[in-house]
Amino acid sequence: MASFASTECFLPLRQSCLTPMHHHQNGTSAILHLNCKSKNSLSFSSSSSFSTQGTNLCNAIERKERSSFAQTAAVRHLMGSVTRTQGLRFAVVVARFNEIITKPLLEGALATFKNYSVPEEDIDVVWVPGSFEIGVVAERLGKSQKYHAILCIGAVIRGDTSHYDAVANSAASGVLSAGLNSGVPCIFGVLTCDDMEQALNRAGGKSGNKGSETALTAVS
């Protein structure tokens, strides 16, 4: 959201007018009256080069007015950050299926909570059979009003059939519905990978640990 403060006169020089110029017969001097709709009225005298000087003055004032208007714009950036986690409680819902992947993800999440000084007694871990069941349990935990955020951790790896698409889509929609229905943030930490190598890389390998990122999202 951007809020703007209004200015009384925006670029008044575009609506400025120059009064008729009075030349002396010798042509050596002239008077230029500059009338603007702003509060200030300017007048000055110059030599025969008054036209160039007047143009420079107008350009300078116009640039100043533009700069002044630009500085009145105030854009607010809202970002989450946590410096104290005392009193915050979290739940972690973890799928047992593909435990070789989900266990390192859980360990990464717990390590991040520890780095942010979240006491172990303020973290509850709930194991479910697979990623398909994560949403149901997450919603139940959210409605208990005992937790400030719920982490949803699982791993779905593509196989030879379309079963992958059904489980992955159901897991995503289930976590989304859990957050909407319970009013508690449910963080999506379910990996959806084409093969086991991709999953291992995201469970502490060269692509980092997505479980740790999920915990960081929760405390933010």
Task: Give a description of the structure.
The strands form 4 sheets. Strands 2, 3, 4 and 5 form a 4-stranded antiparallel β-sheet that branches. This protein has a 4-stranded parallel β-sheet with strand order 8-7-9-10, with helices on both faces. Strands 1-6 form a two-stranded antiparallel sheet. The N terminus is likely disordered. Helix 3 packs parallel to helix 4. The protein has 220 residues and is α/β, with parallel strands linked by helices. The protein is 39% helix and 26% strand. It has a domain of 130 residues: Rossmann fold, CATH 3.40.50.
Mean pLDDT: 79
Could you give me the name of the CATH homologous superfamily of the domain at 90-219? Lumazine/riboflavin synthase
Please outline the major beta sheet. Answer: 4 strands, antiparallel
Task: Give the CATH class of the domain at 90-219.
Answer: Alpha Beta
What separation lies between the terminal Cα atoms?
A: 20 Å
Helix share, percent: 25-40%
Structural class: alpha/beta
C-alpha geometry: globular
Q: Count the E strands.
A: 12
Percent of residues in β-strands: 25-35%
SSE sequence, one letter per element: EEEEEHEEHEHEHEHEEH
What is the name of the CATH architecture of the domain at 90-219? 3-Layer(aba) Sandwich
Under CATH, the topology of the domain at 90-219 is which?
A: Rossmann fold
What's this entry about, in short?
The chain is an alpha/beta fold and 220 residues long. It has helices at residues 50-71, 99-115, 134-143, 163-182, 196-201, 210-219; strands spanning 2-4, 17-18, 22-23, 29-35, 42-47, 73-75, 90-95, 123-128, 149-157, 186-193, 203-205, 208-209. It has a domain at 90-219: Lumazine/riboflavin synthase (Rossmann fold), CATH 3.40.50.
